[in-house]
Amino acid sequence: MEKESGTRKGPWTEQEDVQLVFYVNLFGDRRWDFIAKVSGLKRTGKSCRLRWVNYLHPGLKRGKMTPHEERLVLELHSKWGNRWSRIARKIPGRTDNEIKNYWRTHMRKKAQERKKSTIVSPTSSSSSSSSSSSNSSSPTKGFGPTTEAEGRSFYDTGGVDITTGGNKTGVQIEESAEVYSMDEIWKDIELSEESSNLTSQGMISTPPLWDFWAADSLWSVDGQDASKMDSFPFYYNHMTG
DNA sequence: AAAAGACGCAACCGCCTAGCT
DNA sequence: TAGCTAGGCGGTTGCGTCTTT
Question: Residue limits of the Myb-like domain (predicted)?
Fold first, then answer.
C-alpha cells in the first residue's frame, strides 16, 4: 500500500527490473539513491540495491548450491559466523541473502534431525547429541543450531568474528569452532548426502568461468568498471527468458 | 482431489559505519 | 569535531510452491 508520494514495496515487476538494470548500466551500481530517483522507480535506493545485488546482478548463479559451495559455506561459517556478505564474497555467484537462506534451511533441518535423534535415543551418537549444548557454557555463540529459546535466532551463529571481540572468553577461536562444527557437520552432510553421492563425483569443480568472474572485478563491481557492464542483453535475456 | 504443513526464496526492517559537509 | 546521509549488513517476515496426508 504505497501512498502517492511514498515508495513502492513488494515484489518487483519485470518492467521495474528492466528499468533498474538500464539505469545501473548507465550510472553504475553505487549511487542507489540517485538511481532510484532518476529511474523513476518508486523504490528506495536500498530496495534498488537489494534487487540488483540479489537478483539482477549478472554474476549471479541460480539454482541449487553445489556440494562444493555447501562445503565452502560450512567451512567459512565455522570461521566467521554469520558474516554472510563476507562468506558470499568467497563464493562467487552467490549472494549473502542466498547463503543466509541456505544456512537457515540447513540449520533448521539439522535442528529437526537432532531433535528427532535425541528423542529416539537420547544417549545415542554420543557427541552429536551433546554437541548442541557443548558450546552453551560459553557466552560466545555456539556453532550448533541454537534454539530460539536461547533468545537468539536459531541459526545464529557459528564462528566468531576474529576481527572483533566476539571471542570474549579468550577461547581459541578457530579451535572452538572446530570442536563441534566441522566434524559434526561433515558427518551429517555425508550421511545425508552420501546417498546422492554428490561428493564422490568430483563435482567439486566450480565452473572455470567463475574463477574468472571471481578474480575479476565483476563480482565486486565497483562502479568504475562500467565497461564490463555492457552485457545488458544478458540481463534482459536472463529476465525475460 | 483437497487440505495442511513444510520449504525456499525474495524482500523489508533496523542498526551500524564510512564518507562528506 | 559533530551532524547528516547513503550504503552495507544481518535478522526477520511474508508468500508462493511443493510435498505429504
Answer: 4-56, 57-107
- Find which nucleotide's C1' atom is closest to A82's CA: C10
Whether nucleic acid strand C comes within 7 Å of the CB of A101, the answer is yes
Q: Which domains does chain A have, with CATH numbers?
A: 7-58 (1.10.10.60), 67-201 (no CATH)
Per-residue pLDDT of chain A (241 residues; tens, 9 = 90+): 333 346 788 889 888 888 898 888 888 888 888 888 888 888 888 899 888 888 888 878 877 888 888 888 888 888 888 888 888 888 888 888 888 888 887 777 776 666 666 655 544 333 333 333 333 333 333 333 333 333 344 444 444 443 433 333 333 333 333 333 434 444 444 344 333 333 333 333 333 333 333 333 334 333 333 333 334 434 444 444 4
The three three-digit cell numbers of residue A115, written as one number: 531433535
A54 CA, C13 C1': Å apart = 17
Report the distance separating Cα A43 and Cα A230, nearest Å: 24
Determine whether the distance from the CB of A66 to the nearest atom of strand B is below 7 Å: no
